[in-house]
Structures
1.
Amino acid sequence: MSSYEITGARLTVPFQTGGRDGHTGRVEVVIRPNDDPVRSGHTSVIPEVEPAALQGFPVVTAHVLLDVVGPAGVFGWVQLVTQRLDRGRIHRAIDAVEWMAPMCAFGYLPTFMDAPATPGDVDTVWSADTFLVRLPDVSRTRHLQPLCGFQWGYRTVDGRPAGPLPLRTADAAGWRDFRVVLEREYPDWHFDL
C-alpha cells in the first residue's frame, strides 16, 4: 500500500457543442486509487511488473453526459502527458491509440479511461491535459474542436505514488499549449482554438 491515500476526486465540467444544433452537456470525472491491479486489468497491460508495484496509482474515468441520440453525440478524447523527471528533464507525449491518432478514444458519448503507473520512476511528476473534442463533420475530415477539458496527475517518490495532483478544469491556455504540440505531431489535421 502506498504511503498516501487517494480518497477519490470528482469534477464536473460543462460544455456546449456549438454549431447550429448546439447542445449542452457535461463530463463527470472521477479519480480513484488502483487498489487491486489484478482485478482492474492493469497486470494485463504491464504483465512484467508485480501487481503490488502498480497498487496505489490513479485510475481516472470521464463520462460524457449529453441528452442526444445520433451523430451529435460522437466525440473524441485527446490527452497530452507531461513527465517531469529527475535533473529537470521533461518528457511530453500525446497519448493516442495508433489507429485513432491523435485521439485516445472516439465514439458515441465515449468514456475516457486512463490508469498510468510509473513504478520505479524516482521523484517524478506525471501530469495530463485531457480534452473532449468534437469532429464538426463527425468523421469525414481531420478537424477537431475542443469542448472542455481537465488536468490531473500524480507524483512519485522513491518509485511509489506519493500523492495526486489537483483535479481541475482545463482552461483555454491549456488547449493553446496542447494545440502547438498537436499541430507539430499531426500536420494533416486542423485544430480549432
Note: The chain has a mean pLDDT of 90.
2.
Amino acid sequence: MIILCLFFTEIDSLKNLIAIKLEYQYIIELNNAYLKSGLFDSANDCLKKYEERFGFEEQAGINYLLGENLFFKGELLSAREQYLKTVARFSSARYANEALERLYLFESARKDTILLKRLAKSIYLYEINELKPAEDSLKKLIKTGLGDFALFYLSLAYDKKNEFNQALSALEELKKEFPANRIHRAKILVAEVYIKMGKLQEGIKILEELVIKYPNSPIGIRAREILKKYQPPER
C-alpha cells in the first residue's frame, strides 16, 4: 500500500510539473511512472494527449512508446500495428530502428505467442528497473527461439548496473550464438560499453564502422551522434 501511494504521489507531482511547463522529459517520466504501477492504458492516454505538441523526433519516440505499452500489456496485435505505424510515419527517426527490431521480434515469434509474452514480461521488468528479476527471467530464455533478444536485454541490464564485463560477455555470446541477428542496437551498445570502460578508441572504431556501413539509416545516424561527443569540433 505504501509503495502504491508513492507511485501515485510521483504521478501527481509529474502532472503538476506538466501543467506548469510542458516538457518532453516530463511526459516520458510520467509514462514510466504509469508503467511502474501497471497502468498501461493511462500511460497511453497520456502519450496520445501530448503527442502533437512536440517535434518530429519526440513524436517518433511517443509513437514507439505507445507500441511498447501495448506490448507490455500483452496486446500483441495492437502493438505490432503501432510499430508498423511508427516505421511508416517516422522512417528517418531514431526510433524507427527500434520499431523495426520489435517487428523482427514479432516475426521471430510468430508461431509462439506465449514465448513472446514471456519475453515482453522480462523486458518490462528491465524497463521498470526490476533488474534482478529481469536478469533471472532473461537467462531462462537464452536457449529459446528468442535467445538473441534475451541476450541483448541481459546485456542492457548488466550495463545499467555498470557491470560492463558481464555486458560485453552477453554481447559476445549474442554475436557468437546468433550471428545473423538483426539487433543493430547491439552494435551501438558494444561501442558504448567500451567507452564507459575507458576503452575510447575501441568504441570510436566501432562507431566509425557503423557510420560507414549504415550512413543514412537510424543506426548510422545514432553512431554519428555519439561520435560527435568525442571528436574535436570542426574549425
Note: Residues 2-20 form the longest helix (19 residues).
3.
Amino acid sequence: MIKNKKGFLLAEETLKIIVAVIAIGFLAYLLFSIYGANQDAKNLELAKASLDSLETAINTQQTEVMIYNPKGWWIASWPYSDEGTTLMPNSCSNLGWENCLCIFPAGWTTFRPNGYKQDSDNGACAQMPKETIVSPDSGSQAPLKINKVPLTLKINYGDKITIIN
C-alpha cells in the first residue's frame, strides 16, 4: 500500500514561512529604528544651527531673520506664564537661565498641560539676554510652528524682544 505523505511537509513548511515572516518583520523594525534615530540627530543639529542663527540676529539687533530647518518643529520662548503659573523647561532652568528660546519637535506631550515645556527638553535651547516673546501673530505669547521653509521672522526690540511670524 502506498501512503500519501504530502500532508507531513505542510506543517513543517508553514512553520518555516511563519518564522521567516517574523524575522523579516524584526529586521524591518530594526532598520526603521536606526533610520529614525539618525534622522532625529540630524534634525537636532539643524535646530541648533537655526537657533544659533536666530541668537546671532538678536545679538546684532537685526530686525529680520530666516529659519530654514527643521520643518515641522516649533519655536517657543520661556518663561511662559499660563494662568498664574510660570513654566520653564528643565533644559533652561537647570542652567539657571531666566529667559530662553527653544526649537523643539512636537511630541505626544505637546497638547497636554506643560506639554511644550516637556517637549522643549528634547530640542535645542539658548539663553536670551532679556525677556523674549515668540508670537505667531504679534498677539500673545505662543509657540510658533516652522511650517514653510524658509520661515521669515521679524524681531522687535524694546523692553522685551518680540519675535513674530
Note: The two ends are 87 Å apart (CA to CA).
